[in-house]
Every structure is written in structure tokens, then in C-alpha cells.
Description:
Strand content: 15-25%
Amino acid sequence: xxxxxxxxxxxxxxxxxxxxxxxxxxxxxxxxxxxxxxxxxxxxxxxxxxxxxxxxxxxxxxxxxxxxxxxxxxxxxxxxxxxxxxxxxxxxxxxxxxxxxxxxxxxxxxxxxxxxxxxxxxxxxxxxxxxxxxxxxxxxxxxxxxxxxxxxxxxxxxxxxxxxxxxxxxxxxxxxxxxxxxxxxxxxxxxxxxxxxxxxxxxxxxxxxxxxxxxxxxxxxxxxxxxxxxxxxxxxxxxxxxxxxxxxxxxxxxxxxxxxxxxxxxxxxxxxxxxxxxxxxxxxxxxxxxxxxxxxxxxxxxxxxxxxxxxxxxxxxxxxxxxxxxxxxxxxxxxxxxxxxxxxxxxxxxxxxxxxxx
Length: 358
């Protein structure tokens, strides 16, 4: 099946240290097969020439660039990532999509290029050292059957860059074969639908692929460069039939006009796609839209004409223990949406395990 959205960078920058590692051969092979002609092996490890004359030019250039680098020691140590998983593992940082609410805005420094890590052995080694540790799934009654879980999509969409990196397939194959033991599993979220290569991997049912889904009005307006909703739901079906554990990341939900009807249709479409899947293991994670002052500033520089609602006066400010603030929907709105979603999920997709609402 031909995917509806495939991202191919216009240029690839490879640092000197990255060029010396084994995985670089697979990345170069995939980039060349995808038709990338501008592949530059740098003389050093510093990335330069990333900025244009304006913020918009810088953004446009960055979104066409794939940088292959070596993850530093600080980046390969697994970090706790509640409520999603026990630990976070980063195959890359940065995303090729154009989501106007981007969760990475304000959290990653510099131009929003996608950096993929060439030292994949170092990156994945943390799975072995942290197996059996963690507080989200390891040893819990609700999710203990997942083993120790490792989230791959905290700072990237790993499927969105897979056809030019091969890193995701490598991770799934290693974990599926038991390289790091039986009691571990991977999980990631994607807005893309190019899953064909994943279907033939011996994943050992040790990977959960969640499709990020949303109401049509949200996805069509704010999620540029991604697969459309029918294609994502079809990808979810194909993965489930291939034996993967699957999931829905319903995010970011917004109380748009007619939100009950739109999200109701979404859940009904998912139910229809999965109704005949045997041994279905389905989860749901529901995340409401929120923003911070810094993310708002970055997003407005990237998308100055956005219609995304980011009005502090209509939101509730929540502060963390470090003094940071994020703006969420008022309590009444949150309560109303939560009550509806929990009820609708139980009615339309009773086989789905709701992991969390936030």
C-alpha cells in the first residue's frame, strides 16, 4: 500500500564522528534510495549554516534538513517519562511535520532541524541496563504485562523519518528478538502511515504503536505534512493485524464547535477498523491542548497566521514546582470533556484500556 505522506529531506548533514559509525551506511543508503542528492559529510562535529535571513526562512530550511549526529553521553541515559512509560529513549530529536501546536516548540533549542543519532548501539543500550526498573509499567497490576517500557517518540516522530534512517526498524527488531531480555517493550506515537516495512519485522509483540488521532477540523487545520485521518486509522488496522500492540493517542483534544460529534465519528471510525482483529491489545491516551509562554512565542514565529487558540485569559494557569507555567482549559471545560470521552470510549471502544487523561 502506498503511504499518503513520506518526508524526504532536501539536504543531509553528517558530522565527522557520525560518519565513522556502522549505522551511517544504512542511513546513507536509505537517503540515496529516496532521491536525496545533497548529502554532506562535514569536516567536524559542529552543525553550521542552519539559519536563514528571517525566522520563517530559518524554519523552512530546518524542516528540509536531516542532521546525522552522535548522541552525547547525557542523551543516551534513559530518563523517566510518566505517565507514558518507564523510560525515554531518543532515536532522534526534531520532527519533519508542521503541527501548529507542536509540543517541541520551546523545548528544543535552535532551528527545528531533525537530528538522528548514528550511535544507535549506545542509544539502545539503555534498554538493557534499565530492564526491570521503573514505576509506570514495571511491576504494576494495570500495565505489568507490558514489562519495562521505553518511549521512542518523546522528541520525534520515529515513523516520520524511518524511510531515511532505519533506526526504528532496528530498534523493533532487536527488542523483538530478545536482545535485551523478554520483559521489555517499546512504544511510540506517529502521525504518519508508512508502516509496510514494520509489518514484516519479528517484533515478538514487544512494541506498541500508537496512532495520533484527532477530530477532522483539528487535524486538517493544524497538522500539516502528516497523513490524513483515514490513512492513520488504516495504518492502525494493518499494524493490529500484524500482531502489534496498538494504541490511540487522542491529542491534543480541543473543545472546537461540534467537538462531541467530531470526536464521536473518530472513535466510531476506529471501532469499525478494528472490529475483526483477533487478540486485539488496544490502549488510549487522551491529552488536552496546552501551551507555555515560550512555546506560544515560538509557534507564532513559525506560524504567524495560525488560527490556533492560545489566549491566556481564557485558560487556567498551572505552575510546576520549578516555577514554570502552562495554560490549560478551565476546570469546567476539562471536567466536561473528560466525562464525555471516558463514557464514549467505554461505549464505542470497550476493549480500549484508558491509560491516562491529562
